[in-house]
Amino acid sequence: MLENPRSPRVRAVAKLTKRSARDETGLFLLEGPQAVREALAFRPESIVELFATPTALERHPDLRGTARAAGLDVEFTTEAVIEAMSDTVTPQGLVAVARQFPAGVRAVFGAHPKLIAICEEVRDPGNLGTIIRAADAVGADAVVLTGRTVDPYNPKVVRATTGSLFHMPVSIGGDLGDVIVRARGAGLRIIAADVKGADLLAARADGILSEPTAWLFGNEARGLTDESLALADLALKLPIYGRAESLNLATAASVCLYESAFAQRS
Description:
With 266 residues, this protein is of the alpha/beta class. It folds into 2 domains: 8-99, CATH 3.30.1330.30; 105-265, 3-Layer(aba) Sandwich (Alpha/beta knot), CATH 3.40.1280.10. It is built from 13 helices and 10 strands. It has helices at residues 8-14, 19-25, 33-42, 54-59, 61-69, 79-85, 105-110, 125-138, 155-161, 176-185, 200-205, 226-231, 249-265, and strands at 27-31, 47-52, 74-76, 94-99, 115-120, 142-146, 170-174, 189-199, 213-217, 234-237. A 6-stranded parallel beta sheet has the order 7-6-5-9-8-10, with helices on both faces. It has a 4-stranded mixed beta sheet with strand order 1-4-2-3. β5, α8 and β6 (142-146) form a beta-alpha-beta unit. α8 packs parallel to α9 (155-161) and α8 (125-138) packs parallel to α13 (249-265). The protein is elongated.
């Protein structure tokens, strides 16, 4: 059993909460039964190490069998060790170390996608995680991150995806201009979500949303720059019928993606 929370091995895992360590090692941190379960089900080859308290495995006995089927040994630890490794305030007794698996932009657009989410300068981990989760829910083909968008392997992003990170391609580090060119070359219409855009309901009525689409979402505070907006084929906004000043980015993105999913499946 791993008992010393100050041991070099524990410290190496804990360092993965920092981007510098993730970039240097190509690894990232998974916390909790949901993330571990989805990783084992969809990308077992990515998991390098799996740590658990005896109590946690008693609560989730299925994970031991799934780990064994994937050729992984579970290393038992104390609660103190799990706390030292974790990014959360109240750890759930399960931590895994996994290899990063970013998708290539060329592969994403070479797979004839019908619905893509492009995130430009999205900085909030919770927003990005929720957008990835929503994209997964609507059956989108990929999420493409451009500019200085937050690292998808940030522990807060990973938690917010609730496992969807393991279900679909997520491309990182692309230049927006290059991504737009590739998207358009793949036959996608580029639609920017922007408060200065046209009415989304009118676009729905015109059948625009049923076409292969790449939605472009911008920064939470500033939105999309004029230069980024100019790259899109059109911009659309969600109507607000009540007194809310605006919508949270992740909420707005979820609605936009679902509108396209409904239209493409109607």
